[in-house]
Structure formats: C-alpha cells, structure tokens
C-alpha cells in the first residue's frame, strides 16, 4: 500500500523559524527519510511554498480562479498532482481541465523543494 | 525544538492577530499590550504541560480578555472566571471564539493595528519603531540597536509616538472598501520603509539589519495572507523577497559593497527568488499594474538572469519608463539611466541624469552613477569630482569605501595612461 503523508502546521509560525531552526527540523526529518529511502520505499517528497503563493480554481460550470489557498472546511483533501508548468496560466489551464464538469476545487501551490525519491515503480 | 523555542515562535506568530483583537476589545493600546503580555506569561506556564492549543491566537485573546475581566471582577469581589489551566481543554470555547474571529475580523484587526502605526504626524522612523514594538513585538532594546540610539532614547520615542497615536482618534468601526484600501496603502508604504531601513544599512550591525528586512517580509506576507487578491501586496512581497534574496552576496567578507554585476549569483537565495517569481506571476494576471508590481518585475528580471550579461536591459528600461509614469521621481529616472547606459551607452545615460542635478544634489547614488558614467566616457577629471561629492554624501563607511575603490582605479588608470 502506498501512503501519502501530508504535513500540516501553523504557517505563520513555521515562517517565523530562524534558518537554523528550519534546518534543524529538516535535518531531523532527513534522517527518517534516509532510512526509508535506503529500503527503496520512499516516493516523491515535496515542500510547498507558502499559501500566499497559491491560486485556487473552483470547479463548476464556470470555473472561478481565486487568489490564495483552498480554505474551506467542508471539503477534504483527496489527492494531488505534481506538474511541471512554464507559467501559472499553464497550471491554471491544467487545473481547469482536470476539474471540468466537476464541483470541488483544485489548489495550485508552487513547490519550494522536490525529490523524486528512491522507490522503483 | 525545545518547549521555549516553539512557544516563542507560536507567540510571535500569533501576536499581530491577538494584539489586534485585544485592541478592538479594550480600545486602548497599552491595555491590549498588557493583556497580551499577561496571556503570554500564562501560555508559558500551561502550554508545556497541556501542549499547544489548537488555535494559539484564539487562546491568547480569550485568556487576555479573561485576565482583564477577572481583574474587574476581583475588584468588585464577585466570582472569578475559571483559571486558564483548564482552558486549554475547553476546545469548544476556543473553537467558538475562533469562529467568531473569522478571517474578516482578523483582517481588519491586524490592519487597524498596523494602520495606527502609520499616523501621518509621525516621522517615518517613529512609524517603523512603533510597528516593530507593537506588531512585531521586538524589544525596545532591539529596536534601539537597529537605529543606533540608546535604549532610553528609543523608549522615549516610542512612548511619545504611542501617546500621539492615542490622542488621535483610533478608528474602531469596520472600515468601508475605500477606507480599507487607503489603510492598506499606508501600511504597505510603512512595510516598504521598514525593509529599506534594513536594506540601506545606514548603521547598526549587519545582523540587526537583516532582522529588519526579515520582519518586513513577515509583515508583507501577513498582509498578503489577509488580502490575498491585492496585486500590489503580491508585488510588494515579491519585491522584498527579490531584494533580500541577494543579501548574502551584497557585501564581501570584509564588509565591502559588491555591485549587482559583480555579485556571486550562487549566493543568492533561490527559494526566495522562486517565491517572488510565483507572486509576480499571480499579480500579472490581475492586469492592475502598480508601482510595487513594476519594481518587483524589474527585480525579477535581475533575479532571472543567470549571468549579468543575460540581463534583459531593454525590458528593464521599459519597466522604469512605466514606473516614471506611475510614480514620477528623480530617483526612478536615475535608476532608469543605469539601464540606459547598458543599452545605449554612458553618453545617453549622462544626458538623462543631467536635468536631475538640482533635485539630487544631496543624493549619494546620483554622484556615484554620474562618476561611473563619466569614467566610462574617459572624462577622468569630472569623474573624480563626482566621486568626491559622493564620498562626502556617503551614509556608511562601506559606501565611502566603495567610491574610494573607484577613485583608486581612476588614479591607476590615469597613471598607466
């Protein structure tokens, strides 16, 4: 079974960490990652940019593009894609197409850091 | 992380919202700050035991308010409210409060808090000092160090600024759309000033200066989180990120200024640049250009160039032309002249800045740029004069040392010629 582990935290707090604190957390996590990676079990790892860099496409008959992260509580996170786009417009077009004929929303959040991982397909 | 470290980070992060909300309850800045202090002290006692509350800001507001109410009750000898030790478990109360303090409320609370620091009667430095004290929660000592004054002098300035603000009617009603936009404009300008104070390095240690820049970025991000659809706030945040991304490359190990062309671009912070580019991308979609966006777009072109010779100077020239229209200023024209020098040569650049001589007669960078253009034209004597004026106007030893370097080169060149 593949599992996605999603990281949540108070953003304002994490952004307030000093570089040293941030690096310490990453280093601590890297140790755990390395263990799993060595076993060939690690999939993609990503760190997202802050929610202020996010754009949301609300699906529906007329998709609506909204600045900011997806912030509703009645819908749940059900999946995600990682896609390489030349521009935000390209990413928005992809999200519109994905959500075509659906309701719900797709949040577009630029990645800050990305690793492909060690797991063989 | 230790208890103290995460609690400190959580308290700092929650501060603008919490003090903003407490100010709305008490209508008094000192009382709001005292209540926040008190709730922080209680957080330090109970959080390590009970763990972090789900919504730290809501917890701090609730406790801060209760402490004040408790005081009133104690004085009137009625029953006290429950102690906050059990409050961490009262998730219902927390959730309820968090709900009432929805993002719209927080937005106006934080904006108000920042806005009162921008009182037009306060000189720029006092606006910044007040914001650092009230919104960012820096100690008076830290602020004093940043501005190279004694702690007592800074204390006095902040106290005076506070009473100035208190005497002016603080606007507590919910602002209308126009008013909100005006407030946002003033606050954005203050954040920009704060960043420049850190960036221009008129004094203080590099470390202190960097923290001012970081604080400005934190406030810009805070504003953007509250006003996610304002392209100018995206532009402002992006601009600060681009400028700050170069911080490590701007000074060499001896503290000498390194110009953009000569900076080691590998030292630039590419995370910050990527975030800035994402924000510029977002802003452009709104088709509502403004001066922060244009400045961010210029900085983005510099940031995008892997090597100095890859810089798109034609586009930069165009963007400065737009900026001259949006925000006419001799300093903007001076900056444009640097792009013009790259595009059409030093003669055209010199012709462009000649008419600015009167208005920029006290401006260090005017003479620095003029000297550089004259040097390129081989007009050594005039260049030496211009550099001499620049040194006289330098604000920091680093600025003066940088110009002296140019003078030394001129001397050597004229000797070898």
Helix content, binned percent of chain B: over 70%
Average pLDDT of chain B: 87
Q: How does the helix and strand content of chain B classify structurally?
A: mainly alpha
Largest interface: A-B, 28 and 27 residues
Q: Give the helices and strands of chain B as they follow along the chain.
A: HHHHHHHHHHHHHHHHHHHH
Give the SSE string of chain A. HHEEEHEE
| Number of distinct helices of chain B | 20
Q: How many E-type strands of chain A?
A: 5
Helical content band of chain A = 25-40%
Task: Output the radius of gyration of chain A.
Answer: 16 Å
Roughly what fraction of the amino acids of chain A lie in strands? Answer: 15-25%
End-to-end CA span of chain B:
62 Å
* CA-based gyration radius of chain B: 25 Å
Oligomer: heterodimer
Q: Biggest sheet of chain A, strands in spatial order?
A: 3-2-4
Give the distance, in angstroms, between the N- and C-terminal Cα atoms of chain A. 13 Å
> Which term fits the overall shape of chain B?
elongated
Q: Approximately what portion of the residues of chain B adopt beta-strand conformation?
A: under 5%
Which tags fit this structure?
heterodimer; A: 121 residues; alpha+beta; three-stranded antiparallel sheet; two-stranded antiparallel sheet; 5 strands; B: 417 residues; mainly alpha; 20 helices; 72% helix; 0% strand; elongated
């Amino acid at each position: 079974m593949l599992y996605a582990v999603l990281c949540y935290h108070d953003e304002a707090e994490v952004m307030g960490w000093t570089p040293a604190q941030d690096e310490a957390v990453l280093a601590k996590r890297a140790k755990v990652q390395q263990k799993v990676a060595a076993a060939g079990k690690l999939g993609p790892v990503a760190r997202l940019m802050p929610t202020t860099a996010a754009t949301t496409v609300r699906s529906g008959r007329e998709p609506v593009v909204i600045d900011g992260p997806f912030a509703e509580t009645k819908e749940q996170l059900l999946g995600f894609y990682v896609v390489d786009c030349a521009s935000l417009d390209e990413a928005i077009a992809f999200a519109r197409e994905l959500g075509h004929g659906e309701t719900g929303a797709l949040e577009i959040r630029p990645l800050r850091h990305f690793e492909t991982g060690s797991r063989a397909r | 992380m230790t208890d103290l470290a995460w609690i400190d980070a959580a308290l700092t992060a929650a501060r603008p919202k919490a003090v903003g909300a407490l100010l709305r309850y008490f209508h008094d800045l000192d009382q709001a700050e005292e209540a926040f202090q008190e709730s922080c002290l209680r957080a330090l006692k109970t959080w390590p035991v009970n763990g972090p509350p789900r919504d730290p800001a809501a917890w701090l507001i609730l406790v801060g308010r209760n402490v004040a109410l408790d005081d009133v009750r104690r004085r009137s000898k009625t029953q006290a409210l429950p102690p906050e030790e059990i409050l961490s478990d009262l998730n219902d109360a927390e959730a309820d409060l968090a709900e009432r303090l929805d993002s719209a409320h927080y937005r106006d609370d934080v904006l108000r808090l920042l806005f009162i620091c921008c009182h037009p009667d306060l000189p720029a430095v006092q606006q910044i000092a007040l914001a650092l004290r009230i919104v960012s929660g820096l100690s008076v000592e830290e602020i004093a160090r940043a501005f190279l004054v004694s702690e007592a002098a800074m204390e006095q300035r902040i106290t005076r600024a506070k009473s100035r603000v208190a005497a002016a009617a603080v606007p507590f009603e919910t602002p209308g759309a126009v008013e909100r936009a005006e407030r946002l404009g003033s606050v954005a300008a203050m954040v920009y000033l704060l960043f420049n104070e850190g960036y221009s390095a008129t004094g203080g240690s590099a470390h202190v200066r960097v923290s001012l820049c970081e604080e400005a970025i934190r406030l810009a991000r805070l504003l953007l989180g509250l006003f996610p659809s304002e392209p100018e706030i995206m532009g402002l945040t992006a601009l600060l990120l681009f400028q700050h991304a170069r911080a490590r490359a701007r000074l060499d190990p001896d503290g000498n200024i390194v110009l953009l062309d000569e900076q080691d671009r590998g030292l630039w912070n590419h995370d910050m640049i990527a975030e800035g580019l994402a924000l510029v991308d977002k802003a452009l979609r709104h088709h509502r250009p403004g001066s922060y966006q244009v400045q961010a777009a210029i900085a983005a072109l510099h940031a995008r160039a892997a090597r100095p010779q890859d810089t798109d100077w034609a586009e930069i020239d165009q963007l400065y032309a737009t900026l001259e229209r949006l925000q006419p200023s001799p300093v903007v024209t001076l900056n444009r002249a640097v792009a013009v020098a790259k595009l059409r040569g030093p003669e055209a650049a010199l012709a462009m800045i000649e008419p600015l001589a009167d208005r920029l007669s006290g401006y260090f960078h005017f003479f620095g740029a003029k000297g550089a253009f004259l040097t390129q034209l081989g007009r050594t004597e005039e260049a030496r004069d211009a550099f001499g004026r620049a040194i006289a106007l330098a604000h920091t030893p680093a600025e003066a040392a940088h110009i002296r370097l140019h003078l030394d080169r001129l001397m050597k060149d004229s000797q070898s010629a």
